[in-house]
Amino acid sequence: xxxxxxxxxxxxxxxxxxxxxxxxxxxxxxxxxxxxxxxxxxxxxxxxxxxxxxxxxxxxxxxxxxxxxxxxxxxxxxxxxxxxxxxxxxxxxxxxxxxxxxxxxxxxxxxxxxxxxxxxxxxxxxxxxxxxxxxxxxxxxxxxxxxxxxxxxxxxxxxxxxxxxxxxxxxxxxxxxxxxxxxxxxxxxxxxxxxxxxxxxxxxxxxxxxxxxxxxxxxxxxxxxxxxxxxxxxxxxxxxxxxxxxxxxxxxxxxxxxxxxxxxxxxxxxxxxxxxxxxxxxxxxxxxxxxxxxxxxxxxxxxxxxxx
Length: 308
Ligand SMILES: Nc1ncnc2c1ncn2[C@@H]1O[C@H](COP(=O)(O)OP(=O)(O)OP(=O)(O)O)[C@@H](O)[C@H]1O
Ligand SMILES: [Mg+2]
What we know:
Layout: E1 7-13, H1 19-35, E2 39-45, E3 58-61, H2 72-80, H3 89-96, H4 98-107, E4 115-118, E5 136-140, E6 150-152, H5 158-166, E7 172-176, E8 181-188, E9 191-192, E10 196-200, H6 207-211, E11 216-219, H7 226-242, E12 248-255, E13 261-267, H8 277-284, H9 289-307
Parallel strand pairs: 1-2, 1-3
Antiparallel strand pairs: 4-7, 5-6, 5-7, 8-9, 8-10, 8-12, 10-11, 12-13
Helix pairs in contact: 1-9, 2-3
């Protein structure tokens, strides 16, 4: 009997610190793809020796963090010639490393907070050695979900913050803290989605405020003047292009009191539960969650056809 449905393998879980988030992304994407008529197998990735079910047409990558989002998995998929969703290995590698991506943003004239990069065993700087005054944000170069990120307001907190960031990565960024409002913009295909404003009810957008329902208010479309909204959307699209991303990405921004916009980072595999940021923005643009997941699968399949 001839098979007509697309068979998708959703790779989820992984073994990074973002495993729990990825399991949710994977389960949500799998359910959405089933409802859009695909045949779906969920593969819980626990190590590098995962296996694909026979008959897989396309791989939906629902992993976050190291291995799944840093280009290593994409490298393997490319070598095996398997069509997969989202950006290629090179773009994932560039986006996942904030030291590398920020260097690219600067070269392209995209404003990103100034800062310094500590490598290897380099000591934490003294506050007076920084090219800006406190507060600072200390973060691992290659991590996500705000893990290992600390806002440092007093000079005495710098060494501990660097130590905490080093648990995630040997490369650590010490960035100028940008006061003001926070926004995120998703890109789907070659189009920017509506801008979302992120308003944590208490404190900043740390892991707890990201993943505890009710801790953060999301405003979509963001209550901004039309020209500022457009500016952030164009900025997100430029960031996507500068890193060479494909099909989907999400860029995070800060907006200070003077109206200056700063790009924090680009995620190549943004959270994809129904209530995650990019799906929220897609819904506001009239793209329901099953359609969003199905579109990513179709983009991957079409690429596969061109290559083979
Ligand atoms: N320079 C900065 N100024 C002000 N706040 C910042 C700055 N850098 C990071 N933050 C805060 O820390 C949060 C996490 O930072 P960032 O987006 O760089 O890291 P991440 O862990 O990769 O996030 P994601 O979950 O989006 O992958 C931001 O959403 C923001 O609230
Ligand atoms: Mg972020």
